[in-house]
Amino acid sequence: MFFNFRKIWKNSFNAKKAFSFYSNLKPVILNQDIFHIKKIKLPKLKQIRYLFRFLTKKEKIIVYILLFIGLMSLFSFIFRINRTATIYLPSFGGQYIEGIVGQPKLINPLFASKNDTDLDIVRLVYSGLFRYDKDLNIVPDLVDHYTANEEKTHYYFYLKKNIFWHDGERFTSDDIIFTFAKIKEYGLNDYFKDVNFKKIDNFQIEAILLGPKKNFLNRLTVGILPKHIWENVPRDKMLKSVYNLKPIGTGPFIFESFIRDKTGKIYSYTLKRNERFYFHPPYISKIIFKFFDNFDDELSALQTGQIDGLKYVPLSSRDILSNFKHLRGYKLKLPQFTALFLNLNDKILQSKTIRKVLAYATPKKKIVGILNGNGKIISCPVVSDISLKQSVDEKYQYNQEKAKKILENAGWNKNENGYFEKDGNLLEVKISTVNQDTLKKVGELIQESWQNVGIKTSLAIYPLDIFNDEVVKMRKYQVLLCGIIKNFNSDLNYALWHSSQIKGGGINLSN
């Protein structure tokens, strides 16, 4: 028995279209109540479009919803696959502009230790034998590899052979020998006075020590100078050489230019990428430093988009910057401590009794309060462990009454103005610090506290350049309020208390 579908459907809708839709269907053979389909094919895409003629409105809505859900699921699946499989890599180009308060003076690794601005640029232009990695581990830089004897008195350094100075000259072991000879000649670092550097060949040197030295490799992070440039500069003209502002190094960035304003101050300083850098060349094309006289001008430049960032924000201005959503701040834990350095060349401060009184009269907890908790109290300058477990109550807990009692027992008496005197001599001290917001507030707090005890106290605040060159370097202070940043893994004890560090720009600030 056969069914002619063409005849059945021709009255329902256009016979030609119906035939097209069902042309692939074969007759069904009825045999003893069993239907057998010989062959069925799926309808073509152009045929499916007629399907909606058979659906109700409700069914059509359901189909549309299912199609939408299906498409969204497909897009979500593709997005997740793309996100999982994609690796984001930096691209070359662009520039970064940083604001700095101060002026570059000596962009020279031998002389830059007292100027943060110079140090920032030195680390970008010059390379040392070793460097610190992102985890602050000491790793080879100009050195390819090294060996040492068991006693650590002989080191053999094998240099990389693909290094060139920014002017195209090849870097060799002669540059290393020359640099450390200059350090010893000028007495810049007594650490190397009993270390001899010997050339073996152009790419190998030997360091001979009289005895093992603590953190010897860490000391070799100092930048190396090009011999072919500096050997022709007389000693008396070295500090005035043009190469202190137009340096030639082996580092990741090359000096390009600087611009002075009408007063002669350097307004901006530009470094460009070193395409021949022996490690991977930097991705960023240029770094530009712009210099300001004070933080307010620097902050204004940041807000108006003249600079992209700055490295220091006073506590008083951090709330202001938090209102700018396009800015991002990074909080770093530094191995730094701030202290009152008492100049022991001063007759008053040579008295241990007076020094104890000043310690008891210093409100350390209130000082940490000024820092909004961004600090902790220590009783000694041990900062190699940021999380020092020393108790803050161990020594010289703030006690004004105890300070007064110590003075009275030592024969000091208050005059009509409320200040202590002894044998006609007024107990008077002067605190010197730098013109920096936080240090000014700390200095004012200490001044008030000491005067409440009965010690006449004055506070002198200096611009950064004068503070460094005329106050600290010349040791023209009685009490010095300043911060010390410890070089990672360096010997701070030597720097703070060795007699050689009293003069020549050292940080034995108590003399």
Task: Lay out the secondary structure.
Blueprint: H1 5-9, H2 15-22, E1 29-31, E2 34-36, H3 45-48, H4 57-85, E3 95-101, H5 116-125, E4 130-132, E5 138-140, E6 143-148, E7 154-159, H6 173-185, E8 195-201, E9 204-209, H7 216-219, H8 227-230, E10 253-260, E11 266-273, E12 286-292, H9 295-303, E13 309-310, H10 318-321, E14 336-342, H11 352-360, H12 364-370, H13 400-409, E15 413-414, E16 420-422, E17 425-426, E18 428-434, H14 437-453, E19 456-462, H15 464-472, E20 479-485, H16 492-497
Parallel strand pairs: 3-12, 3-13, 18-19, 18-20
Antiparallel strand pairs: 1-2, 4-5, 6-7, 7-9, 8-9, 10-11, 11-12, 14-20, 15-16, 16-17
Tags for this entry?
20% strand; alpha+beta; disordered N terminus; 29% helix; 16 helices; 511 residues
